[in-house]
Structures are given as C-alpha cells and as structure tokens.
Write a structure and sequence with these properties.
Chain lengths: 445, 410, 550
C-alpha cells in the first residue's frame, strides 16, 4: 500500500536525521528511511567540524575559522555554500544541534568558536568541535593533575599502557598536559568472563547497580593508591543514562572522569544514533528502518515517486521533496568497481574534489601510495556534485531534479578523515537540506 | 576407474577431508557475508549477545567469520549456531545488510545433513514431532478435548464460536499456523470472527499442516520441502487467491517460500489484510470500547513481521489500535527487541531464551500498561510465560484476539 | 670473533631447511636473514607442495617432488592438508593435451596415497563445484597437498635453534671476505641494533632466492639468474569448494585454490629486472587472472578481492623459452669454480624441494668439513607434530571457543597446549585480538617470545594476524599494544608500528581496490586517520621500498 509523505529522506545517519528533524520541525510530514546503520553509529561520537586543511599540520584555532578556511581554499567544499545562506550560519546550526540533543544521553559540549583537542584510546589527540558530555574534560591541560588511564581487563579494544606512554611522551616533548600519568586495568566483567568483553556489554553492565558498584570500587581503590585526580576511561559509561553515571562515579571517587575517543563498535556512536532518532520522533517525523530505496520516477524535472523495499514488501511514496543522505562507501551511497565509482540510488555522476568525473576512474588511482597521508586519499573526496541549495547535478552540470537535495558524505568536495570534518559537514548540509526541502514543500521558496 | 567409481572416490575424499560442497544458492549466501566489514555494529544490537555476552555467543560477526571456512573447523561452531533466535536484528542494523539469519539456517542445514550427532537432542525431538504429525506440536488425541479447551478459552475471552469453513474456490485461505491450531486456539477463532465480520470469502485448510519453518530451523531440508509441498497442494486444491495468517513466523516463511517457488499467491498477516483490503475506516466502524475505562496497551513487535517482512506491518497495528475507542497505546523501550522465542532457542537452551526476554519484561513493566498485545501467538506465549514467572498481573493478548474482543457486541 | 662452521644466508624455506639440517648434523650454524623468516619469496607462494604434474617433461623432478611430499607429510603432518583439484574441460581438444603428463603422474600416485587422474562427468563436477561453467564437458580430478609455508619456515628455524643453530633475523649481509681463495668472514648489518658485526665462517651458503646474484657479487662473483615475477589475487573466503586449475588466456596453467579463509588465484609470469622489493601487482596481472578464470568459473568477479601478492621466481638462467619450460630443478653452484671455495649458492628449486635441497648442500658441506653423520630431516618431525589434539576437551578445560582452538591447532599442532597454559595465569589473554582468523592474545605473546618477530608484519607470518577479510583493520592497534608490552616499545614506536603494518597491508590492498574493499578502507581511514589522527602523529615514518619509487 502506498504511503504519502511530504518529504522522504533516504538514509538515517547524522545527515539524514538532521535533515529529517529540521523538516519535521517545520511541520513537513517527514519520513526518514534507512536500510542499515552507517558511519554515524560507527563514529567516535564526537562531532568534528574542521580540524585541518588537507596537508596542513596545525589544527585550526576554531571550527569557525576552519570552516571559513576550507570554504576559501576549496571553492567546491560543501562549507562554501554557508556563505550564501546568512540565515543558517555555523553558529546557529551548532547551537541548534546542541538544543536538539540537550537532555539526551549524547548531550553535547563545545562551541563553534573553540577547537577541542580530544584524547583518543591510542593516547593521541585530535581536533574536534563538540564532544558528548561524558567525553568532556577541561582539566587535560593542567600540569598538576594525576591522570589515570583505566582499561578493563578482558576488553581488547583499549590498552591503557600504550595510551599513557604515548601521552607522557608528548608531555615530555613539550606539550601541555598532566605531569603524572598512570594506568591500570580494572576488573569489571559483565558476565564474569575473563576476556572478550565488548564495549557495549560494559556500557549495559555499568547501567546496573551491580556494575556501577563494581567499577566505582575498582576506581576508588586505584585512585587512593595513585592520588589520581582525573580518569580517562574507554567509552563505556552507559547507553541510556551515561551522564548520571559519570556524575555518580565522580562523586564516589572524588575525581573527574571522561571517556576517550574510540573506534567501532562504538558506544558513543550508538548513543548519538539513538538520541537523534528520538529527536526525529519528538519533532513529529517518522523513522522507517529496514527499507531501502530501490527505484524512483521522475517527471518534468521532479522526483514524483520513490519505491521502498523491505525484506518482503515493496511500496511507493510520492514525496514533494526528497533528500539523499545515503553516505559514502560504508553507508552505501557510493559504490565502485574496477572501472569507476557510481551513486547507488539515482545513478548520479560521481565527481572528485575538483569536480572531475570519476565515473571511469579506477578506484586505486584515487588513492595515494601510503595508507595514511596528510593530504588524504582523493577517493574520500568523491561524491555527487551539488548547487548552492545542495541539489545534485547531473552529467551536464544541470540540476538533476528540482526537488532532490543531498546531504552528508554522499557529497563530493571534502576529505573528512584528514580534515576532521565528517559529522560537521553532515550536520551543516543535513540542516540546510532539511530547511530547503521543507520550504520547497510549503512553497516558501 | 569409470566415471561412477571416480565420483564415488571423490565423494569419499571430500568426506574424509570434512569438505561439504556449497550449492549455488548456498554460495550466494556465503557471498553476502563477503560484504562484512567487521565493524561490529551487529554485536551492539544482537539480543542474544546482549543477554549472554560475546564470550558465549560470538554474535553475528562471529558466525560470519566461522562460515568462511567449511573444511574442517566448521563443525566446531555448533555450540553457538543453535543460540541464534533468527530475529534478523543483525541484518537490519548491518551497514551492508549481511544476511546472517540465512547463514545460520544454512549452517544448521549442513550440520543436520552431515553431522546429525551435533544437532541438539531437543531439536531432534522437535523434528520427530514434525515428521510424525506434520505439525510443530503433538496434536490433541481426542478431538472433543481439543474442542473443550477451545471453548474454555473462548468463554474466558467472551468470544463466540464460529464453525470451521472449508470451501473450494474461496477467495482467501485463512491459515492459522501450528501454535494457533493446537495451542492458542483463541487466535484461530478470533481470526474467523474478524473475517466473518467483514464478510470475507474465506476457507481453512482441510488438514492443518506446518508451514515448514520449524524444519528449516532444525536444518531438515527434506522435511521442510515436504511440508511446503503438502501445503501448496492444499492451496492449489482450494484454488484460493490469497493467504491470510495470524502468525508472524508463518507470514515471513510463507512469503519467502512463495517468492522462491513463484507461487504467485500473496501471503499477508491479518493486520495487513485488515488495513490494506478492508481499510482502517471500515474496521473502525466495527470497534467499540472494550472496557468501562481507558485501556493502556503496549505492543511487542514480532521479529518475523518487522524484520523479516516489513516494519510497516506494526505501523498498521498501531493504526488499528488507535482506532479502538478508549485504548491508549504506550510504547515500551524494548518494543522491537527480540523476545527470545525464535530460532527454537527456547527448546535447546531455555536458560538463554529466558535471559533474553528479561529485558522485554523489564521494559513492559516500566510502561505501566495493563495489557501487552502482539500479533504473533509464539511471542504471546513467550511473553505470557515470562510475565507469569515474574509474578506480573499484566495481561497478554494476541493482537488478533484483542481486535476481535473489541468488536461492537463482540 | 665468533666462528661458525656454516653461515646460511636467507631465512626462506631453503635457508631454514639448510640451517636445520646443518644443525642436526652437529655443525655450528648461523642463519642470517635481512628481514624476517619467510618474508620474501616463500611468503608469496600458494603453499602447494606440488607433485610436479606440470613438469612431466622432467621425470626426475617429478620423482623428487613426489618423494618430498611423502617426507613433508611425515615430518609436518599438522601443517599439511590435502586439496582436491578439478581441471574443467570446456572443449574436446583439451582432453588430448594431458596424455604424456597423465602417464607420468600416474606412476607416482601410489606413494602419496592419492588416486590417478580421474575423469568426472559434467554433472558430478558441478555437484562438487557448482560454480563451474554449466557448459563444461568433463573435468579431470587430482589430489594435491598443501603446507603452510610460513609455519614450515618458522618450524624449521625453531628446530634448527633447538639443535644448536643461531638464528638472526633483521641482519643483512653487507660483505663476504675471502682469504686464500676461500670464504673467511661475513659482515652483516644488524638492523635491530644498528651495528655492523663480523663473524668467521668455514662455509657460506646463499639461499637467497632472487637475491642470489647480489650476494654472490659481495664475494666478487657474477651469478646469473632468470627472475620471473608471479602475482596472486586473493579473494575473501573460500569461494569454491575445491581447487580449480585451468589454462589462462595465453595457454599457461593457472589455479584457484581455497586457502585458509581465502581463495588464491595465481599466478602470472613476467620476466623482471626490477628490484624484487619494489614490485607490486599490476592491473594487467589482476585482469589476466580474473579473465582467465572467467572461462571456467563465470562468477569469479562477484567475489570480494581482498588483496594481491607478488613474488619472484629465482630460476636458472635458461633463456628464449617460456617461463613454464625452464627447469624446476635446483642447482647448487660451488663457487670454488669462481675462485671462492666454501661458498655455495642455490638457484632454481621449488617449495616442495626445500628439504631435499638442504640435504644435498649439507652433504657437500659435511664432506668438505670432514663431518660424518647422515641426514635425518626427513625422519625427525618438526615441532608441534605429535599425537592428535582433543580440541573439544581443551576448549572446555581452558574456556576458549572450540572454533578458535581448531584454528590454533591448524597452525600449531600440539604446541597449542603451551599457549593455553599461558592463559592459566592470565585468563584475559584468551581475548580474540584478530576476529577474522581468529587469533588469541596468548598466541601472539607466545609467538613474540619464541619465534623472533620484530614487527606486526612478522606476527602475521606466525599467526596469520590480519590476513582475513578486514585485512588488519581491527587487529592492528590491539596487536601493536601487545607487542609494545612484550618488547617494551614506546608510545610513538607503537604508533609507528601501526602505520608500518597498515602500509604493508595497503601494498596488496591498493591495486585491486574495488567493491566491498572501498567500505573497508573507509573504516581504516576512519579509525586511524579520522579518530586516531596518526597521519599527523607519526612523524618518523620511513617509506617502504615500493612507496619510495612513486
């Protein structure tokens, strides 16, 4: 049976949900459809906006400065569109997201005018903008703190010894940081097993009285012995009420604790994904998971029909606006074979960062000879081209459809792994697309 | 050596080396696993892993890894492969939609055919019942006792009894599934009441036989094919144009078989039939307040509907519930979490099944609903038993029964 | 200055076999390897200990191969497996081409306990291997044996050590000094300590494969080889049930073998004059292999490619014939003929012959040094080979999943008990560090403590770390920390180790990059660049040879 929505958003990561929430807040009847989880739930849960220029070595002083610099240096960067929309500035968008997430498990701290150097589970630091409240600390630059890296015995994802050595070395090399750094392994096993504990298991365990008591006792013991004032934990402080858990542990141990940025499978990514989904619902939007957009119909320059498919059912929608937020290779918005790259829903032309077509470029030619490079792999700059309203462009450079918008990493022109701009671009473009799409529905523009 | 002897030799070598050739269709399932990027999202969501830990149930990702080597270590995975409830959560959250539920069925099938000694005894027992009766449960010995049990259930629910109809050339086949046929008879009866109410031209099958899902879960391919063939013959004999069922498992399984074998007869859950064929508006005309006060109801979403069929089926459920006067629906935070009743896990490891459902029970109690409804007799049984053990007084109803109960003058 | 009877240069299959034989016969032996054990040629082969089927025009070679298969099965049964192989025939003309080969092959099947060449109907062939082309008319069937080449080399080295040999990896020979027309000293650069060390030797044996010319040059000798590049494409998981061999687009024989949790397609053959350290697989080689198999396995392109790998065949200098017609026999060059006595080089040879090559050269060395004693390398088993291991019992006893133990057994045989014992004191070492294989924390520590790995890449050769579908995406940072603990690495050394290993994996992932690997690579960049910020953090990264030239 067909379903009618004003707006269909294809893709349910940060870009898609941000777009969906924005549209729903403007009273558009909005459906966000998602086939699987993607890069947002795999993310560290921190929201990067702009860290470096490609090839640069000095982080931007502020995300705002970074956005301006990226837009200036790369005219095709998605951030370059911001200049033309004064009503939706970076500041407004960042505070909008903070409002959306306020009170949720992934409530965010930070601002558009401060770069936060967040500590990772490898003991490295990276520039970011917003971090979840549980990941936040202001005391990392205090030289007189005693910092404890606390791992969990049986959790292979985090080795506190490596992290503490790495941070100590950077402090010795002259960076600001605690002069006393210690590390330990806590005994805190959700199922009494000695090994193969997953972060999410721990997060759920800590939400039980038993688990919380356990970790508090272990930490108390350790802080007493070492005089610890600040504790770095892997991100395991719960899925539903991590902020209360953080507070509780801090009270009981007399320290400040914070979670490190970590890798998938990610607890903060899980929290962020769920918090955004809840916000969509609160805003009046509908989330339909387990459905994939398999085909579409276009008439007179407009998308008039999207076909959605679940394992055993297929149905059509007739949206007034469509937002494409299907992600890159992880999300499945882009795919590639030996001859080139393609976009998976509308078969839009895929372009590189300089807007040259990569339809017929072998993926390996879009990479560098070393695996990690400050300039980044051009492969990750590839995506679909867009106009100043984030409407995808076709082979001829014309708008593909007047009511189709695109957001997030399906877009070309930015290299998030090295720029540290991933969720930031998703947020900015998602927000703008959501507003544009809703205006399109209400005839506001 | 002639060609036949040669082939016999090769088969023997394969057996000695513990190699089991994958068929073409199995190879497709194996290839779907080739999309796995090891991200572990499935581990965050798998209800079994959540309940017992990664150490005991390595989870979907572990299963994907283990499948990749058939010879010879393959067999060492059996301690985990029977813990999967087949809920499909992993496939749904997977960025690449790797088809783990099918992988699990495939592995169970291979273990059953090559190493039946490794299949849990309880699954063999289940299969014995299937083989003997063509039903998932041992049928009632005495038809009178069965009728008496049915009447008691109907009386308790204040529902009328309508005689069974078996009519060739009917438009719709109502297929209740084994649970509603042999155990939860009120579901079967409620569906008949609903179909009658809207003057649907329906029939039942002459002789109830299983849809084949339990045989697939045991891994007995031969039996599963036999069961679906028997059912198809009955369907052909009756000449129906569509099938309506009240069971979530039957819905997804029959849909799958119908698609694979080009039945060209659509299979719907009764909720879909009510919303799409009858229409919510029409249905609402028949509904009336069922109590003298507002009834707070929470819903449990059966995996076989939301994840193996479509999440929209549960949207329909909400539309229908909202149409019943004085029913307030409250959402449980675990509404779409597997209840642990699938995959025959309850038979083989009841301890695991019980830990899984704990989270559902916790969340249901948190809603302060007085009733929980679900459009699947199997989930109903699992949740009912668990709530009972928990000492809770929350009532549990199959959604079909709940709808029939709320009919005006019902 | 330390004096050795024998210095073996090269830690591949031949070098380690020579060290083992020499040590077992009581010679004071030093093995020098410039990189890691099995790090070059042998590490890029498919592991087939071939019956020599392809070389029917050299019956002596077939005899030798066949005997050696029997010996390897005897000494290393725990790392040897049998693989059925089909030769699908698409056309009648292909049947006649096997005549002479079949006859020679069948003479030798009995000693290996395999059947003669069997002919299967199309139906039977497709029953065993449904991925074969539906229009095939029949297929030939043989059974061949495979060995884990990494484990073979490591076990030979360990066994040599247990018999008194000294094994030095990361020691690159820089000079061979000659006195009175005989080898006198060998100088090597110890890359771990950064020092030059010199040792005396009565005999020097160069088992350096494609680098034999370079080593000979150090002694002032010119030694000609014909170097021939061979590349493999590695597919994710076992995409066929059995091995398949067919003629390539140019009529050469190529194969597709399920191997561990992957499938290997190989090989190409290109004469090369490049530095073997700088070679990477070309797009043409990838296409050559895929296109060749499309004729018999039409779905071959649907499989996920995880990487390519390439090696160099150190063949005898026979020219003006195709690679396949160059003898597969080996030759021991006595450089006495070049005025340097006590110096021997190997050219040619195949994996299956490594033990035999060692026996032959050790016989010569013993005669020269007046040492009596006969070869026992074909009688005494390699470490880990003992009675059957009861996996289910051990899984229960040590609380480790049986699947992980089966894999451990396949790599380690009875050594696995020692590894499990380590987890008694540290139960958390039963953590699975690499999910794809899987590899347990304790096995990594055991390998570091007893098998001289210095890098994560070396660990890969010991325990198959990072060889599965995700190609080290998720195990690298975990294993690096374990290595840091065991070897006392600093934080920045640990980070460098991570980037080094990512580089090594990237070498093979990059040429065939497509399909599911694109998403995998996005994750790699997400982890190590986006979150880890290692592209900014690791500042002392030294480009690899294949990275420098581009």
């Amino acid at each position: 049976m067909d379903a009618d929505y004003d707006i269909v958003v294809i893709g349910g990561g940060l870009a898609g949900l941000t777009a969906g929430i924005s549209a729903a807040q403007m009273n558009a009847n909005t459906l966000v459809v998602r086939k699987g989880e993607g890069a947002t739930s795999l993310s560290s849960g921190a929201l990067d906006i702009a860290g470096y220029l490609r090839g640069g070595e000095t982080p931007f002083l502020t995300p705002e400065e970074g956005v301006a610099a990226l837009a200036h240096v790369y005219p095709f960067h998605p951030y370059s569109v911001l200049e033309s929309i004064p009503s939706l500035g970076l500041k407004e968008i960042v505070s909008w997201l903070k409002d959306i997430l306020a009170g949720s498990p992934s409530a965010m701290i930070g601002s558009h005018d401060t770069t936060t150097m967040a500590l990772t589970i490898l003991g490295t630091k990276k520039p970011t903008c917003l971090v979840q409240r549980t990941m936040h600390t202001t005391r990392l630059d205090n030289t007189d703190e005693t910092l404890l890296f606390a791992g969990i015995k049986g959790l292979a994802d985090f080795n506190p010894s490596t992290a503490s050595k790495a941070l100590m070395e950077s402090v010795i090399a002259g960076e600001t940081g605690p002069h006393k750094i210690v590390h330990t392994l806590l005994e805190c096993s959700p199922f009494r097993q000695p090994s193969n504990i997953s972060p999410v298991e721990l997060a759920r365990y800590i939400e039980t009285e038993d688990g919380l008591d356990r970790i508090i006792k272990e930490l108390q013991h350790c802080t007493e012995q070492t005089g610890t004032t600040l504790i770095a934990l892997p991100p395991i402080l719960g899925l539903v009420n991590p902020i209360e858990i953080k507070k509780r542990i801090e009270e009981e141990t007399g320290t400040e604790i914070f979670e490190l940025l970590s890798f998938p499978p990610s607890v903060p990514g899980y929290r962020l994904q769920r918090s955004l989904e809840a916000s969509l619902k609160k805003a009046g939007g509908t989330l339909l998971v387990g459905h994939e957009a398999v085909s579409f119909k276009k008439q007179e320059g407009k998308i008039i029909d999207i076909t959605l498919k679940s394992p055993r059912r297929t149905f059509n929608t007739h949206p007034k606006s469509v937002i494409l937020a299907t992600g890159k290779f992880v999300g499945g918005g882009l795919a590639g074979n030996r001859t080139g790259l393609r976009e998976t829903v509308f078969d839009l032309p895929v372009l590189d960062g300089t807007r040259q077509s990569v339809q017929d470029v072998r993926p390996s030619h879009l990479t560098r000879v070393v695996p990690l490079h400050k300039e980044g792999h051009p492969l990750f700059e590839c995506g679909i081209g867009f106009d100043t309203r984030f409407r995808p462009i076709d082979v001829k450079g014309d708008i593909f459809a007047s009511n189709l918008f695109a957001a997030g990493s399906v877009l070309c022109g930015y290299n998030y792994p090295v720029e540290k701009s991933g969720l930031g671009v998703a947020l900015v473009t998602g927000r703008i697309c959501g507003v544009h799409a809703a205006e399109n529905v209400t005839g506001g523009n | 050596m002639d060609e036949e002897e040669a082939y016999a030799h090769v088969r023997n070598t394969l057996k000695e080396e513990r190699m089991m050739p994958f068929s073409t269709s199995e190879m497709e399932v194996v290839r779907s696993v080739g999309q796995c990027i090891n991200c572990g999202t499935c581990l965050n969501h798998c209800p079994v892993t959540r309940a017992v830990g990664v150490e005991r149930f390595t989870g979907p990702r572990g299963i994907a890894v283990e499948l990749s080597r058939s010879p010879p270590e393959y067999w060492s995975s059996t301690d985990r492969i029977y813990l999967c409830t087949g809920c499909g959560t992993c496939r749904e959250v997977c960025p690449k939609n790797v088809d783990i539920p099918n992988v699990v069925n495939l592995m169970r099938r291979r273990i059953f055919s090559q190493r039946p000694d490794l299949v849990p005894q309880s699954l063999h027992q289940q299969n014995e019942i299937l083989r003997k009766h063509n039903l998932a449960f041992v049928p009632w010995d005495d038809p009178d006792e069965k009728a008496e049990s049915r009447n008691m259930r109907l009386e308790r629910l204040d529902l009328p009894f309508i005689k069974d109809k078996i009519r060739k050339g009917a438009e719709v086949l109502f297929y209740p599934g084994c649970q509603a046929e042999e155990r939860a008879q009120e579901v079967r009866e409620a569906a008949k009441i609903i179909l009658e109410r809207f003057n649907v031209d329906y029939t039942l099958v002459e002789k109830m036989t299983c849809c084949s899902l339990p045989a697939i879960l045991v891994g007995d391919m031969e039996k599963s094919i036999e069961l679906s063939t028997i059912l198809k013959k009955q369907i052909d004999d009756l000449g129906v144009k569509k099938i309506v069922t009240t069971c979530a498992g039957c819905t997804s399984n029959l849909n799958e078989i119908a698609a694979r074998n080009n039945w060209e007869i659509p299979v719907y859950h009764i909720l879909e039939f009510l919303v799409e064929d009858i229409g919510v508006h029409e249905v609402s005309k028949a509904l009336s307040p069922m109590d003298d006060h507002t009834v707070r109801v929470t819903v449990h979403d059966p995996c076989h509907l939301i994840r193996h069929t479509s999440r929209r089926v549960l949207e329909y459920a909400h539309r229908l519930l909202n149409a019943i006067p004085d029913v307030e629906v409250v959402e449980s935070s675990a509404h779409d979490l597997c209840c642990g009743g699938g995959g025959l896990v309850g038979r083989h490891s009841p301890d695991v099944s019980r830990v899984i459902v704990k989270e559902n029970i916790r969340a249901i109690k948190e809603t302060s609903a007085e009733r929980i409804v679900t459009p699947c007799p199997l989930c109903t049984a699992q949740i009912e038993e668990s709530l009972f053990r928990d000492g809770s007084d929350i009532e549990v109803d199959d959604l079909t029964v709940f709808i029939a109960q709320s009919f005006e003058g019902g | 200055m330390t004096e050795f009877d024998v210095i073996v240069i090269g830690g591949g299959s031949t070098g380690t076999a020579v060290a083992r034989d020499c040590a077992m016969r009581g010679l004071k032996t030093l093995l020098l390897e410039r990189d890691d054990i099995a790090s070059a040629t042998v590490g890029t082969c498919a592991g087939m200990i071939s019956s020599g089927f392809k070389y029917y025009h050299e019956p002596d070679i077939m005899d030798l191969c066949s005997h050696e298969v029997v010996h390897l099965k005897h000494i290393a049964r725990h790392i040897v497996a049998k693989l059925p192989i089909l030769f699908p025939l698409m056309d009648l003309s292909e049947i006649s081409s096997g005549g002479k080969g079949m006859e020679e092959y069948e003479k030798r099947v009995q000693e290996r306990g395999v059947p003669p060449v069997l002919i299967l109907t199309p139906e039977a062939s497709r029953e065993i291997e449904p991925s074969l082309h539906p229009e095939l008319i029949a297929s030939g069937y043989v059974e061949e044996f495979f060995i884990d080449p990494f484990r073979l080399c490591v076990l030979q080295a360990k066994d040599a050590e247990q018999h008194g040999a000294t094994i030095r990896t990361y020691c690159e020979v820089t000079a061979i000094d000659i006195r009175n027309g005989a080898v006198h000293t060998v100088t090597y650069f110890n890359r771990m300590t950064g020092t030059l060390e010199t040792v005396e030797a009565k005999v020097v044996i160069s088992a350096t494969g494609p680098w034999a010319s370079e080593i000979a040059r150090l002694a002032g000798i010119s030694l000609e080889l014909r170097l021939n590049k061979g590349a493999h494409v590695i597919l994710d998981r076992r995409v066929t049930n059995v091995g398949i061999s067919t003629r390539a687009v140019d009529g050469r024989w190529v194969y597709l073998f399920p191997h561990e949790n992957t499938t290997l397609i190989g090989t190409t053959a290109l004469d090369t004059w490049d530095n073997p350290d700088e070679l990477v697989t070309s797009q043409d080689e990838i296409e050559y292999l895929l296109r060749s198999f499309e004729f018999v396995v039409p779905s071959v392109r649907e499989a996920r490619i995880i990487r390519t790998m390439e090696g160099v065949r150190p063949m005898a200098p026979v020219w003006k014939v195709p690679e396949g017609e160059v003898t597969r026999g080996y030759e021991i060059i006595d450089h006495g003929q070049d005025g340097v006595s006590g110096f021997y080089s190997f050219i040619g040879g195949k994996l299956v012959m490594c033990r035999h090559m060692a026996e032959a050269v050790t016989d010569i060395v013993c005669e020269r040094l007046g040492v009596t004693g006969s070869c026992e390398t074909h009688i005494k088993p390699l470490p880990g080979m003992s009675e059957e291991v009861d996996v289910l019992m051990l899984a229960e006893k040590y609380g480790v999943p049986s699947h992980a133990l089966e894999r451990l057994k396949a790599r380690r045989g009875s050594e696995l008990v020692e590894i499990l014992e380590m987890t008694r004191e540290h139960p958390e070492w039963t953590n699975m560090v690499c999910i794809c294989e899987p590899v347990m924390d304790a096995e990594i520590r055991y390998a570091i403590r007893t098998e001289y790995p210095q890098t994560l890449n070396d660990l890969r050769r010991r325990v198959r770390l990072g060889t599965g579908p995700c190609q080290a995406t998720f195990c690298t940072f975990k294993a690096a920390s374990i290595m840091a603990e065991e070897l006392g690495l600093t934080g920045s050394q640990t980070h460098s180790e991570i980037v080094d290993y990512l580089s090594e994996r990237w070498k093979g992932k990059r040429p065939p990059l497509r399909g599911a690997a694109l998403a995998q690579e996005e994750i790699v960049n997400g982890i190590y660049a986006c979150v880890g910020n290692l592209e900014q953090t690791v500042i002392d990264y030294e480009p690899k040879p294949w990275e420098e030239i581009r």
